[in-house]
Inverse folding.
C-alpha cells in the first residue's frame, strides 16, 4: 500500500464492512440491482460510527462533566437524525447510476488492512498534512505543560475545527455531491450540512476554553492519535515525518 497523505481512520464494525463489500460487489456486477434498504442500513451505520469517533469517543476520552455531555449527546442526536432524514429522502430518488456512484464513494473511504493474517475494514478520511502536523505539534506542546498557553490553545481550536471540517466533508458533503440532486433536495442537503457544521464549530468554541488543562491535553492526544499515514493522493500534502516513525 502506497502512503502519500495523512488520514483519520477508524475500524468499521463487521456489519458495516460486510454490507459495504456486498454493496460494492453488487453495483460492480454486470446486472446491478440497487437495494435501497441496504444502502440505508450502510448509511445509518456509517454516520453512527463516524459520529462515535468524532464526538462520543472524544467526549469519553476527555471525561467531560455531565452538563457538557448533555451538549455532546444533543449534537450526536442532531447529526444522526438530520443525516438519516436527508439520506432517506435522497434514496427514494436514486437511479442505478446514482447507486454506482455511491459504491465508488464507498471504495474511496474503505481501507482494508491485513492484521495478524486477517483483512480488517477501516473507514478513512484524508486530512491536509499541515493540519495533521499542527495537531501533533500542539499535542507535544500540551504534554510539555503548555496546555493553557493562549497560542497553544488557539492552535488546538484551529486543529479541532479542521478535523470537524474533514468529518463534514467526507460524511455529508462528498456523498451529496456525487448524486445529481434536484434544486429542492440540493437546498435541503445544503441546509442540513450547514446546520451540522455551525452547531459543531459552535460547540468547539464553547467547550475548549472551559475544560481543564488535563482535559485539553486529553483532547489533543485523542485527535492526534487517530491520524496516521494513508493511501491518499499527494494533493493532501506529504505525510509529516513524525507519522511515518510511529
Amino acid at each position: 500500500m502506497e502512503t502519500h497523505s495523512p488520514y483519520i481512520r477508524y475500524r468499521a464494525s463487521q456489519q458495516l464492512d460486510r454490507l459495504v463489500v456486498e454493496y460494492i460487489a453488487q453495483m460492480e456486477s454486470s446486472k446491478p440491482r440497487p437495494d435501497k434498504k441496504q444502502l440505508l442500513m450502510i448509511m445509518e451505520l456509517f454516520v453512527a460510527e463516524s459520529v462515535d469517533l468524532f464526538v462520543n469517543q472524544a467526549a469519553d476520552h476527555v471525561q467531560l462533566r455531565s452538563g457538557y455531555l448533555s451538549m455532546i449527546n444533543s449534537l450526536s442526536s442532531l447529526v444522526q437524525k438530520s443525516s438519516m432524514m436527508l439520506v432517506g429522502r435522497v434514496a427514494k430518488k436514486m437511479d442505478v447510476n446514482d447507486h454506482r456512484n455511491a459504491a465508488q464513494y464507498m471504495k474511496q473511504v474503505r481501507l482494508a488492512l491485513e492484521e495478524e493474517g486477517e483483512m480488517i475494514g477501516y473507514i478513512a478520511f484524508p486530512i491536509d498534512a499541515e493540519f495533521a502536523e499542527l495537531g501533533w505539534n500542539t499535542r507535544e506542546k500540551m504534554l510539555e505543560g503548555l496546555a493553557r498557553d493562549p497560542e497553544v490553545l488557539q492552535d488546538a481550536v484551529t486543529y479541532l475545527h479542521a478535523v470537524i471540517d474533514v468529518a463534514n466533508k467526507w460524511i455529508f458533503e462528498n456523498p451529496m455531491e456525487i448524486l445529481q440532486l434536484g434544486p429542492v433536495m440540493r437546498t435541503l442537503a445544503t441546509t442540513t450540512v450547514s446546520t451540522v457544521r455551525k452547531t459543531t464549530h459552535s460547540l468547539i468554541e464553547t467547550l475548549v476554553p472551559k475544560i481543564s488543562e488535563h482535559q485539553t491535553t486529553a483532547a489533543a492526544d485523542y485527535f492526534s492519535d487517530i491520524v496516521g499515514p494513508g493511501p491518499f493522493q499527494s494533493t493532501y500534502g506529504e505525510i509529516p515525518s513524525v507519522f511515518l516513525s510511529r
